[in-house]
Amino acid sequence: MDTECITRPVPRVLPPLDPSFRPAALAHRLLAARVAASPEALPLRLALEQADGSVFHFTLKLVPPPEPESRANFFFLERFVKFLLWSRGGFRVYVDGPDELGARMQRHFQETATGRFDANIMGERIYEHPFEVLATRDLPPPRANTKPLGRHWNGCRIGFDLGASDRKVAAVIDGQAVFSEEAVWNPVPQSDPQWHFDQIMHSLRRAARHLPRVDAIGGSSAGVYVNNRVRVASLFRGVPADLFQRRVRNLFVELKEAWGGIPFEVVNDGEVTALAGAMALGKNAVLGIALGSSQAGGFVTPEGNITSWLNELAFAPIDYNPAAPLDEWSGDRGCGVQYFSQQCVARLLPAAGINAPDGLPLPEKLKLAQQLMEAGDARARKIYETIGVYLGYGIAHYADFYDCQHVLVLGRVTSGPGGEIIVRQAGEVLRTEFPELSGKITLHVPDEKEKRHGQAIAAASLPEV
Question: What's residue 453's pLDDT?
Answer without folding.
Answer: 63
